[in-house]
Amino acid sequence: MMMRLTKRSIIIYLAIAAAIATAAFFGRERILAAIFATPATRPSAASGVAIVSVASPIVQSIARPLELPATVEAYEQSELYAKITGYLNEVRVDIGDVVKQGDVLAVIHDPELPLELDEAKAQKSQKAAISEASVVSIAQSKQSLETLQGQLNRYKTELELQEITYKRKEELFAGNGIPRQDLDEAKARRDLAAADVTIAQAKIHDAEAQVRSAEAMQKVASAEVDVAKAKIGRIESLMQYMNIVAPFDGIITKRYLDRGALVQAATANRTSVLFTIQRNDKMRVVVAIPEAEASFVKAGDAVSMKIYNSTKPTIQEKIARVASSLNSGSRTMRAEINLANTDGSLLHGTYCLVRFALEPRANALTISSASILREGSNAFVFTIKDEHAARVAVAVGLDDGKTAEILKGLEKDAKVVVTGKEMLRPGMAVNVKASP
C-alpha cells in the first residue's frame, strides 16, 4: 500500500513540474490564450495552420503620456485692505459684481484727516511768511554791508592822507620848521583816521555775519516750507485712500464688511480684508509636476486639457511658465498654462486633467502595443516570413499602451503579428487573415 502511494505521489509531482515548466516556457499569456482562444485564432485541427493578422511598423512621432490633475485659478487675485483707519461710509459693490479698474468699491470716512490738512496748510503759510521775511532781512543786511564798505574805503583814503601829512610834519619838525604842537596835531589826526578804519572793518565783519545769519534763517524757513508741503501732500494722499478702488478689471468674489464697520489701516495689528477681487477674462491652469517628471516639462511644451464638468471639448494649449524649482514640502514643481475665458464660463477652483507628451521622439519606428509579448524583462514579437512564424526579440522604448516604440530588432518592412500571436510557435505555418 505504501509503495503504490509513493509512486502515485511521484507521478503527481512530475505532472505539476511539467505544468510549471510549460508555463515558464510559453508564458502566462499563451496558456490563457490557449484556454480562451476563439475559433478564428486557434490553429486549424485539420491543417495545423494558425490564422493571424499582421501589420507593418509605422515611422511616426511618439511621446510618453503623463496625465495629472490640475486646478483652474484666476489670472490675478487680490485681497483689498484699508490704508487708513476709519468708518466704512459706503459699500458700493457685492459678490458677483463685475468692476473695471479704478472703480470705487467702498468709501472710508476719517474726520481727523481734513483737520490735519487745514493745520498743515496753516503751518505752510506761517513758514512761507518767515521765509519771505528772511529774504527781506538778507537784502537789508547786504545793503548795510555795502554802505559800511563805502565808509571803510573813505576812512582808508583819509588814513593814507593823514600818514603822508604826518611824515611831512616829521621832516619839518626835524629841521625846526614847525613847532612841536603841529607835529602832535598831525599825529593825532593820523591815529584818529586809523581808528576809524579799524571801527569800519569791525562793523563790516558784523554786517557780514548778519548776512550769513539771515541767509541761514532763510534756508531753514525754506526747508520748513518744504516740510509743510510734504505734510500736505502726505495727508492729501491719505485722503485719496479713503476710496477703495479696483486695481484691475475683474469680479468681486468676497465682501467681508458692511457699512458702519470700523476698519483698521493695513499697518495696524488688527486689520481685516474688505474685498477679494479676481481677474477672470484669462485664467491660469496650475499643475503640480512630480519631482521624477519635472526635468521633462518645459515652457512651450504642448498639452491637452479636459475641464471637469464642462461641455467644452479637449483644449490644446502650451505651457506658459514653469517654476524651475521644487516645493520642499510636496516635492513638486509648479507649472502654469494660460487659458482664455472671455465668456466667463471657467470658474476659479475648477478641477481639470492635463495630459502631457513627455520625451517626444520624432521618426520613431512604432508598432501596436498589442503585438508585444513579454517573458520577464524580455520582449518579443512574432513576424511572418514565407508564411511561417518567427520569434524576434525586440527592445521597446516608449509605450503609451496603444503604440510602442521599437528601438531595435525590427525592420520597417517586417510583418508583425497583431492577433493570433498567443498560439504561435517559431516555425509554425500561418494563414494571414485579410484586414477588415
The rough form would be described as elongated
- Number of helices, where a helix is a run of at least 4 consecutive DSSP H or I residues: 5
What is the CATH H-level superfamily of the largest domain? Efflux pump adaptor protein, beta barrel domain
For the terminal residues, how far apart are their CA atoms?
62 Å
- How many strands appear in the DSSP assignment? 20
Indicate the mean pLDDT: 85
Number of domains: 3
Portion of residues within helices: 25-40%
Structural class: alpha+beta
* Second-tier CATH architecture of the largest domain: Beta Barrel
The biggest beta sheet is recorded as: 13 strands, antiparallel
H/E element sequence: HHEEEEEHHEEEEHEEEEEEEEEEE
Strand content: 25-35%
Low-confidence stretches are: 1-5, 22-42
Q: What is the CA-atom radius of gyration, in angstroms? A: 52 Å
- CATH topology name of the largest domain: Elongation Factor Tu (Ef-tu), domain 3
CATH class of the largest domain: Mainly Beta
What does this structure look like?
Residues 1-5 and 22-42 have low confidence and may be disordered. Helix 3 packs antiparallel against helix 4. This protein has helices at residues 2-26, 28-36, 112-174, 180-240, 291-294; strands at residues 50-55, 58-80, 86-91, 98-99, 104-109, 243-245, 250-255, 262-263, 275-290, 302-307, 315-318, 321-326, 332-340, 351-368, 373-375, 378-385, 388-399, 403-408, 416-419, 430-432. It is of the alpha+beta class and 436 residues long. Strands 2, 4, 7, 9, 10, 11, 12, 13, 14, 15, 16, 17 and 18 form a 13-stranded antiparallel beta sheet that branches. Strand 12 (321-326) and strand 13 (332-340) form a beta hairpin.
